[in-house]
Amino acid sequence: MTAGPAAADGGGDHGPDHDAYSNLRRFVTIWCRAIYSVTATSMTRGEFEAHLIPQAAVLREALRAERFDPRPAVGVGAALVDAHCTDPEALPSILGVIDAYLVLYCSPGDDLPADQARIRCSRLQHAVAVGFSQALRERTLAEQESLSRAALGAQAEAERALAASEAKFRAVFEGAAVGIGIADMDGNVVEINQAAARMFGGEAHIRRRNVRDWVHPENDPAIRGLNGELMRGERDGYHIEKAYMRADGSVLWANLQVTLLAEAAGPPQYQLALLEDITERRGLLQRLRHQATHDALTGLPNRALFFERLDQALDPDGTVTRIGLCYLDLDGFKTVNDSLGHAVGDRLLVDVAERLRECLTSPDQLVARIGGDEFVALYTDPPGLTAVTDLATRILDALARPVTLDGRDLRVHGSIGIVYGPVGSRGAADVLRSADITMYRAKELGGNRYEVADPDADARAITRHGLTNRLPEALERGEFFVEYQPLIGLENGAVLGAEALVRWGHPVHGVLGPDQFIPLAESTGQIVPLGRWVLEQAARQARTWQSEHPGAGRPPRVNVNLSPIQLHHRDLVAEVAGVLDETGLPPGSLCLEVTESALIGADEDALKPLRRIADLGVAIALDDFGTGYSNLSSLRWLPVSVLKLDRAFTRGMRRHPADPVDLKIVEGIVSLAHSLDLTVTVEGVETRAQAEHLRALGCDHGQGWYYARPGPPEALHRLSLADAG
Amino acid sequence: MTDRPSWAPQGIDLTVPSVSRVYDYFLGGSHNFEVDREAARVALKAFPGIPKIGQANRAVMRRAVQFAVDRGIRQFLDIGSGIPTFGNVHEVAQAAAPGARVMYVDNDPVAVAHSKAVLADNPDAAIAAADLRDPRSILEHPETRRLLDLDQPIALMLVAVVHFLPDADRPAEIIATLRDALAPGSVMVITHATLLGPTPQAQRGVQEAYQRTTTPLLMRTAAELEPFFDGFDLVEPGIVPLPHWRPDSPVTEDDDTAALHGLAGVGLKA
C-alpha cells in the first residue's frame, strides 16, 4: 500500500466528509484483506467488508474523540469474534492493520499530535484485544457448554434407548426356557437366568463360581480341553452333552452350547452358555436302552448287547488284543421246562443268571443271556487261557449245587464251549459259531464240562451240528436259492430247458452245494419242506420262461430232483399236482429226476406215487443211470421216460480218440433206451469232443460245463436268446 | 443405570473423534472435545488448507440454498448436517424466504442433541437421528413426514457427506432411492472432497486422519460424481471446484487454492 493520506486527500473536488469516508473505506479494505482469509465466516468478501465498516468507524471515532476513551474498542473485538474471526491467527492480523493504518487513514490531522495519536492507537489495540479475548472466551465457554449439554442429552437418549432394549432383552433372558449363563474369559460366572438357576437347583450354587470348577465324573475328560480351545480362539464355540453336579448333589445332564461374546470390534470378553436340561430325556433313553439291551427275565445283558460288546472287542482298531468266550448251554433244562412248566423253568433261569453273575470277578467280564437256556461270558483281554478256563470252571461249579424251587431240588448242568485267542480277522458270528460247535462237543462228551475250540474239531462238527440245526431256520430266512443248468438238444444245440439245482447261501460258510447239505436234510426230514420249496421255485421259473418266450419251439421245461425220502412222503402226489395247478405250468414241462438207487428194489406200492405223477403227464427221469446195478429189464415197467446217463460213461470221450469201450457201452444203452421209447440225457459234457461223440452215438440231450454252468435263471434266458439268434 | 449388566454395549463413545465435531473445529468452533481436536490437528498437519475447504463448502451451500429459494423451493432436506454453528441452511433459507422448512438429518447423536437445542424454538426446522446409508429411514421418519411435503419440490442437500460413503455402501443406489422420492422440480446439491492439485501426499494424510474417526473419507473425481446425478439435469456450471460454483464475485487469486479440493454440483429433477 503506497497511497498515503496526501494522495488519498488529493482529490480536491470532494468535501471533507466524503474524504473521511473514503479513507475509512480504504482502511476497511486493507483490514478485510488481512482478516478475511483467517475468518471462518460464510459471508462473501463484500459482505464481510461491509460488516467491518461500522467497527472501523467505532475505532475512528475513538481515535478522534476530544476526550479519549478506548472502551468502545472493546466492542469491536467482540464484534469480530461474532463474525467468526476466531482463528488465533486472526488477532495479530486485526491488530497489525490497526497499528499500521488506523492513524494513517483515520487521524483527525493536526488536531492531534502524532505522538498522541500513536498512544491512542496502541490503547485502542489493547481494548480491541481485550474485547476479542473476552468474547472468544465467552463464546468458547458457551459452545463447550452447549456441546456438553448436547453430549449429555445424547448420552441420556442413548441410555434410555438402551434401557428400553435392555428391558426387552432382560425379559427374554429371564423368561427363556433354556438356561443362559454368561461368564468372563477367566470362567467366572457373571450372569445366569432363572431357568439356569432352576436347573442347578439354586442360584447360589452357580453364581460367582468358575465354570472350570464344574467337574463331574460322568464327563469325558476330553471335553475339558474344549473350553481351553475356545479361550485360545482355536474354535468359535462348542456343543456337547455335559453332566453337572446340582446343589443337592444329583446329576444334571445338559445339552450345552458355548460361544464367545465380543463387542462390535475387539477381542471376545465373555462366554455365553446355553443349557438345555436333558436329564430326564437322557434317563428315559437310558432306561429304553437298558430295556433294549437287557433280558427282561434275568436282567442280564441280552443278545444285542453281547454282540455289541463282542463287536467292539473284535474291532481290529480297538484297544482289545485278545478275548475269551464261554458259551454255556444248560443240560437238562428242556426236561425241567417240559415236566414242570415254564414258570418253574423261568425261575430256574433267574437263579442260574444270578449264579452266573457271581462268577464274574472283574469288570472286563460280562455275562449275557443270548437264548432260551444259552448264556455266554465274554472276557476281554484275559491274562491267558487259564483265566478263561477258570471262569468256565467257576460257572460249572456254580451250577453243581442243585437249585431249590418249591422244596424241590432241581439239577442242571452246563456244557461250555470256550473260544480263546487274539483279536484278528474273525467276526463276531464266526467266533460265536466256533463256541457253539465247541459247546456241542462238550455236550457229546457227556456234558457238565467245558471244551476249548480248535479249528479241526470245528470243521468236523460243522456238518453235524451247525448245518443240520440251522436248516429249518435257513429255509425260513430264505437262505436257499435255485440255480439252473441248461439242457441242450444234441441234434441242433437248442436249449430245451434246465435242471434246477438248489444252493444254500450260508451266512458264514458262503454258498454250499447240494451234496453238502442234502444228505443232512434227508437225515432230519428237512428234505421234505426243502424239496417242496425247490419244486415250487422251479415250476414258477419255468412258467416265467414260457410266458417270456411264447411260441418259440417247444416251451422250456425244468428238471427237479426228487429225494428218495420225498418219494416215500405220502403227500408227494398232491403236492406236485398242487404246484402244477398253482403255477400253471403244463405237466409236460416238468421232469422229476429220481436216482436209480431209489428205485432199486422198489415194489409196486412204492412205485405207485411215481406212476400217478407220470399219469399227470409229468416226465420221470432215472438219474445217475449206470451207477447202480440196475436190472435193465426193470426199465420196461418203471414209470420212466428219460435216462440220465452218469458222467462216468462220458469221461472216456473227453478227447479224440475216445475210449472205444465207453463208446460201445453208451451206444448200447442208447440203443436199448430208444427201443424202450426212452430219451437219453448225458450229464457232465465238458468238451466239444464229448459233445460230438455223444451226438454221433445218438444221445438226445446233453448237460454240462461245455454248454453252460449252473447259473441264475436270467442266464438261461440269455443262452436261449443267443441260441434263437 | 447401576443395574445394567457390565457387559452391555455403550451408547455413545466420546473417546472416538466425530466427523461433525472435527468439522466444527475446522470452522473455528469450540463444539468439540480434545479427541476431535487431536484428530483435526493431525489432518491439519497433513493439509493445512482444510479450514478453507470447510469455509468454501459453507459458502457454496449458502449459494445453492439461495439458488433453490430463487426457484421457489421452500423445503430443504439437509442430510449430514453436523453441529449447527452458523450459516446453517435454515438461517440462510429462512432469511431468504421466511417460513421455509428445513429438515436436518445426522447420525451423530451428539450433533443431533445439539441441533435439537438450537432448533428448539424454530417451528419450521427439525432434526432426525438417521443414517444416509438407510435412506428409507430418513424418508419415512415421522419428523420428515411432518415437516416436508414430498409431493412438492424440495432441495436435497448432501453437503460434504457423500465422501464418507465407500463404494461398498453403494452411494449411487442410496441417492437413487432419495431421488425417486422427490417431486419434479426438486434440486439436489452435492459437495464432495476430491483429489486435485499438487499434494496427493497431503490428501492421503487427510484420508488417514479420517480413518481414525468412525467415518473414513473418500476422494472422488468429478467424473465419479456424475452417476450420482442420474435422473437429474446438472445446472450450470456442472460439477466444479467449490469456489467456481456460481460465485458471488469473480474468483480472485487471493482465494485460497485449498478450496479447489472440494467439488460442488447441483442437479434439477425433471
Automatic annotation (TrEMBL), chain A:
Residue ranges annotated for the PAS domain, each copy included: 165-234
PAC domain mapped to chain residues: 238-290
EAL domain: residues covered: 464-724
Domain GGDEF: 321-455
The organism's place on the tree of life at top rank: Bacteria
SUPFAM superfamilies for the chain: EAL domain-like, Nucleotide cyclase, PYP-like sensor domain (PAS domain)
UniProt-recorded name of the protein: Diguanylate cyclase/phosphodiesterase with PAS/PAC sensor(S)
Originating organism: Actinacidiphila rubida
Upper classification of the organism: Bacteria, Bacillati, Actinomycetota, Actinomycetes, Kitasatosporales
